[in-house]
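Q: Could you fold this chain for me?
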Amino acid sequence: MNKTKLFSEIKLLANISSFSKHEQLIQGIINALNQKIIARGDILPSVNEMIRELGFAKETIGKAYKELIARGIVESKNRKGYFVATDDTEQHLKVCLLIYAFDTFQETFYQNFRNHLGPNVQVDVFFHHNNLTVFESIINSNKGQYGMYVIAPIDSPEAINILEKLPMDKFLMVDRYVEMKEPYSYIVQEFRQSSYNAFVKLAPRIKEFSEFVFFFRPNSAEPNDILISFEQFIKDYKINGVIKSEYHSGSIAPDKVYFTIHNLELWEILKDTKVRGLKVGHDLGILSHNDDNVKEIIFDGITTFSVDFAEMGIRAAEFVLTKVPVKHVMENKLIQRNSL
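A: Sure. Below is the predicted structure, expressed as structure tokens.
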């Protein structure tokens, strides 16, 4: 990298009255990239070098570098300085997306989020799998490296403390809701009332079977509000309900309604019904959480209650693009099909 040419490129912009000093620095680095004066992987001048060569204030240089980091054009490495991260000078923003895992409904969220942002926004996807150690490591290692953080949180005091260290004007909570001290934006699901409402609508069908079985794993990522709703429902409607921690392969039985949150568990249940020659929706009922295209098709349709993850992805992208604060709670809605 030719630092002399880089500084010259920045100084040329001083004659353009519409540019502030921090804009001169940003545009100068972008111009230098476009002219191949600097390239991806090059280390940029330190703050002190910039002060000596340009006479800019430390705060001005820091502001410019932070904006270039937010756009993903520059990255900061502890104790090593600032580096050129990409040759794509059209890139307007770099987003950190941290979610639970890449299930089919999460993919629906991601695809709509990604598509709505457009081509000039970089999205890096990370998964925490409801593991606090992984969650903390990802956030700490990426703090200050992105212009926006879109995060599905873990519901624990430790996770909340980690999140509260992020800049709230660059943070969006998605999927699950946890309460934090400072004002923040969120687009999340509501589980308790909407789950109860779904059970109530299904009550006549559920009563046609002898037992309502809910597979729920305590101390997991599964929403506890759904468990509370299930327990309230079977009490209010005098349903013979049972809660089990997991489905055991081969244990399928007729005259029951099976409800699971996990897709892998759902596939195992459906496989066993086929092996046993049982007819879904007639010999037994099946209810699933979180809808996707596959559930609309298999076994002539699986009954679900779910939020619209495509809508959630689009709403999240709108926040990233506009930075207009949002507080939106999405209701899980019943989608009744053949299985129940």
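A (continued): Residues 3-84 form a domain with the Arc Repressor Mutant, subunit A fold (CATH 1.10.10.10).
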